[in-house]
Amino acid sequence: MVEIAQRVAELVQIPSVNPLHAGPKSGDDGERQISSWLADHADALGADVVVDDVVDGRCNVYARFEGTSDRAATIDVHLDTVGVEHMSDNPFDGRIEDGRVYGRGSVDTKATLAVVLQVMTELHAAGQRPVPTVNLVGTISEEGGGLLGATRYRDWLLDRGQTVEQIVVAEPTMCAPVHGHKGGIGLDVTVHGHAAHSSKPHLGANALSGAARVVVAIDAEQERLAALEASTPVGKGTVSVTELAGGLARNIIPDACALYVGRRTAPDEDIDEVRAALCQLIETSAAPLSTTIESLYGDGSPGFYQDPESALIRSLAQLADAAPTTAEYGSNALRYGEVAHELVVFGPGSIDQAHQAVEWVDISQLERAVDIYRAWLTQ
């Protein structure tokens, strides 16, 4: 099916790198371009379109295709991509070669956007409508910045007193329905000490020493979490320190040290309790030095878990002939628990090809996804 490959290639050729990852190769205006593209194309297919300015002109797009039944289904596709500075070939050429479409975003997640638009184009050309009302939601800022687009869409629904019967969150899952993955909390921590000449360390307070105690405490907490029993197939919570920076010079006792602490949360964990306990652990282990703890992208998210026997999961599993599974990565599904009756992560292609120096999606996966979405939206 040449048409679907060309549609993905066209989308790849629109740079839509998240501004947090933008660089000389990409510029920082990509989300705006693809939002405009989606709004125009959805309007041409007869959708009712809302363009929602989330932040600094970066817009979500909500396209409503009226169905023939009382059912409604929302498909969330994030419009942004990760950066391209490390890519080894042209990130935006969208070349079609050896049964694949290449380029940034080809699999994550412009593939699903192309698939849904392909099905809606077919229906429009035939003078038909989907059976469920389809809300195609293009969101910004999934690849960095705290899922701002999904948060905005959730709040947009809540402000109108609306919930959604079914939400499909687009990610590359090899067309297998993903019914759960972990949530998370990210904490930027600064341990505060007191500077002094390194020949007289007793006159200072070494912030690196306080930070080292935090690292040891976090490692011990990870060991405790690892010993717990998992309550769902998603697995257990984890915690780790992944960034550490401090020290001004070799002859100065450091007065500050910065750490990043990442905590992955299981679906059964209370996010407020986890955050409070983690902050207390950091403060206690750094003592007697003081700490500043910030969460730049909100208060964190509980894990996502949907009963694999739910109607949505069973329907997609049957259409795709694929068993429901769980994922190790996160997605916009973390924001939709309070507005969706049923929730799944689903899409063509493999997550193994996402974010790579060479990104691609198999055309066979695109064709399979078109068949699945066509069947799902016309039954």
What's the SSE blueprint?
Elements: H1 2-12, H2 30-44, E1 48-55, E2 58-65, E3 72-78, E4 96-97, E5 100-102, H3 110-125, E6 133-139, H4 148-159, E7 164-170, E8 180-181, E9 183-192, H5 207-226, E10 238-246, E11 256-265, H6 271-286, E12 290-294, E13 304-305, H7 311-320, E14 340-346, E15 360-362, H8 363-377
Parallel strand pairs: 3-6, 3-7, 7-14
Antiparallel strand pairs: 1-2, 2-6, 4-5, 5-15, 8-13, 9-11, 9-12, 10-11
Describe the structure in your own words:
This protein has 379 residues and is α+β, with helices and mostly antiparallel strands. It folds into two domains: 2-180 and 303-377, Zn peptidases (Aminopeptidase, 3-Layer(aba) Sandwich); 183-294, 2-Layer Sandwich (Alpha-Beta Plaits). The chain has eight helices and 15 strands. The strands form four sheets. A six-stranded mixed sheet has the order 1-2-6-3-7-14, sandwiched between helices. The protein has a four-stranded antiparallel sheet with strand order 10-11-9-12, covered by helices on one side. Strands 4-5-15 form a three-stranded antiparallel sheet. The radius of gyration is 23 Å and the shape is globular.
